[in-house]
Amino acid sequence: MTGGLKIALLAAAILGLAYGGYLGHRNVVEIGNSLKSIQYVAPTKVASDFTRTQFMHADTDHAGKAVIMQINLLEQLELADKSFHADELALAYIRLAMVVDAAGRPEAAQRALDQARLRYRQMHSRNAELTDDELKNLVKQSDRLMAGL
Amino acid sequence: MKWPLVTGFCGGLLIFGGCAYLGDRAAEIVTFRSRKPMTFESVKKQNNGQLRSELQTLQAVAFSQFSEDTPLELQKSADYLESIRSTKQPELQSVLDLQIATYYVEMARLERDAGDVAAADHHRRMAEDILHSLGWQDVSAETMAKLTRWQLWRKATK
């Protein structure tokens, strides 16, 4: 084998490694970015399912704890990662309002509804402002829809 | 001996292809390990890692739902969730408890269908106890069956 051929083969090996390395790195970065954007889907869905189930079947004390757990989780996530949008917070605050209202705390219920309205407005800026009853109906409709599936 | 030009070119091409494959695999492994997607790296400093721990626990619950629909596999999933339960905060323990109860309800259904009434009753009672501890008033068979509807729907659409 001539010296020139050896150099050519060595260059082919180096170029191959560099090209393959670039492709592999780029693929994983793309997949990683996709995974990063969906990484919160599963945990937030588990929290949401838990809250909905407890809201539908448990007493007000346990249902309230479940809702607060979900709200805390979503709010912390929103603070920690700006790419995360806590769209479910509106429903969670409405549930909280309904739970504390059932527990005989109308003022706390009103504060929770105000929070829900604020969140809802952020999500649907073009919609007209919803009344308290319309907000509560959102939860009822959502639960009926899930129960009917 | 002097190689013909074509043989040298083909050899170079083969070496390029082989090295490109090796480089691709190596870069994938190194990059994946360094970036660690799906491990909630971006929130690891929040609340001294508590948020990340909560997310990992909830993710474990989500992943456990992919177990096969057999009493043995459901028991394994329930045992796993039970094993991680003691180290979690009370709110997360409730999430784990509800999922464990769901597995027991599903196990009871499968065991009843298989004619194993004793095991079905045992697991139904375990589910009832857990659900009572979660503040449920109504633990009738009809209400408990609603817990597993989602699991059945998900598996039916697989």
Summarize the structure.
The complex is a heterodimer of chains A (149) and B (158). With 149 residues, chain A is an all-alpha fold.
Tag the structure with descriptive keywords:
heterodimer, A: 149 residues, mainly alpha, 2 domains, 6 helices, 83% helix, B: 158 residues
Can you walk through the features of this model?
The complex is a heterodimer of chains A (149) and B (158). Chain A is mainly α. In chain A, 83% of the residues lie in helices and 0% in strands. In chain A, helix 4 (89-102) packs across helix 6. The model of chain A has no long low-confidence stretch (mean pLDDT 89). With 158 residues, chain B is an all-alpha fold. Chain B has 2 domains: 1-35; 49-156, no CATH class. The longest helix of chain B is centred in the first third of the chain and has 31 residues, at 5-35. Chain B is elongated, with a radius of gyration of 25 Å. Chain B starts with a helix and ends with a helix. At the A-B interface, helix 1, helix 2 and helix 3 of A face helix 1, helix 2, helix 4 and helix 6 of B.
Helix tally of chain B equals 6
The major β-sheet of chain A equals: none
Give the overall shape of chain A, derived from the CA principal axes.
elongated
How many domains in all of chain A? Answer: 2
Major sheet size, sense and barrel closure of chain B: none
Helix content of chain A: over 70%
Write down the Rg of chain B.
25 Å
- Write down the overall mean pLDDT of chain B: 87
Q: Label the structural class of chain A.
A: mainly alpha
Oligomeric grouping of the chains: heterodimer
* Low-confidence sequence ranges of chain B: none
Radius of gyration of chain A: 26 Å
Count of extended strands of chain A: 0
What is the beta-strand fraction of chain A?
under 5%
Write down the domain tally of chain B.
2
Low-confidence stretches of chain A: none
How do the SSEs of chain B run, as a string of H and E?
Answer: HHHHHH
